[in-house]
Amino acid sequence: MAIADSYDGFLIDLDGVVWLGHEPIEGSADALNALAADDKPVAFVTNSPRITPAEQARILQEHGIETDRNRVVTAGSTLLTLAREQVGEGAKIYVTGTSGFLSQVADAGFDALPADRWNEAAAVLITGHPQFDYSELKAASMAVRAGAFFAATGRDPTMPMPDGLWPGTGSILAAIETASGRTAIVAGKPERPIFDAGLEVLDLPAGSRVAMIGDRLDTDVGGAQNAGLDGILVTGNDSIPPGTEITPDYEISSLADIVA
Ligand SMILES: [Mg+2]
């Protein structure tokens, strides 16, 4: 019996599972198309807020995977869903992020304020970007201190780059939390909102068996298990470090193993 037979649907991480830096991982497209043929719904769940669900879906399609933008959930799209629930579409908000994320904010119908109008912001949304500066720190923390809804895509302090670890969204968020004295809600893995967003895409009846498949023990597997789902770890050629408290429900070397 294949692992896939034990589940009704899957949440699937992108980087390290479907592709590595957008280079497709061998067998992943065939495995995904086999799940589709078997009527097992799939949602792609990624913490990357930089490119839109539509762009992620286009890359998946280029790799021969049948999907569409509505099946891709990012930390950015989840953050915007949270904000819409809290302050309503069309609300004035203060946002830090890349131009890619800012265009998603505009597409979602929000009115993104300049830094000097922070006092009108109903919500403050944080994603990391390389031009983050003091005026953004000041606007974000003062709006949060004044009571704005406060949320971020993630809390990872660093991100791996070819020359080492660069400061990530978590480092910027820590500065705003320190300056404002408040703690943000986090949309991305390992926190719950992005798993809930993925489950909504699957649209399965209550009690259905769903597993998250990812390559990170803490964010993918640990986050899924905290959200009440199974967690399947793609180890590649690595093994689980000794002393780790999280135990995956299955360990596979690549996505192809779940339909084998
Ligand atoms: Mg990954």
Which key terms come to mind for this protein?
260 residues, alpha/beta, Rossmann fold, six-stranded parallel sheet, five-stranded parallel sheet, 21% strand, binds magnesium ion
Structure report:
There is one protein chain. By secondary structure, the protein is an alpha/beta fold. The chain folds into two domains: 115 residues, Rossmann fold; 106 residues, 3-Layer(aba) Sandwich (Rossmann fold), CATH 3.40.50.1000. The protein has a six-stranded parallel beta sheet with strand order 5-4-1-13-14-15, sandwiched between helices. It has a five-stranded parallel beta sheet with strand order 7-6-8-9-12, sandwiched between helices. A two-stranded antiparallel sheet has the order 2-3. The site of magnesium ion has 7 residues, from loops.
Topology (SSEs and partners):
Blueprint: E1 9-12, E2 19-20, E3 23-24, H1 28-37, E4 42-46, H2 53-62, E5 72-74, H3 75-87, E6 92-96, H4 99-107, E7 111-112, E8 123-126, H5 134-145, E9 149-152, E10 158-161, E11 164-167, H6 169-180, E12 185-186, H7 192-202, E13 210-214, H8 217-226, E14 230-234, E15 250-252
Parallel strand pairs: 1-4, 1-13, 4-5, 6-7, 6-8, 8-9, 9-12, 13-14, 14-15
Antiparallel strand pairs: 2-3, 10-11
Helix pairs in contact: 5-6
This protein binds magnesium ion.
Magnesium ion (MG) binds at residues 13, 15-17, 214-216.
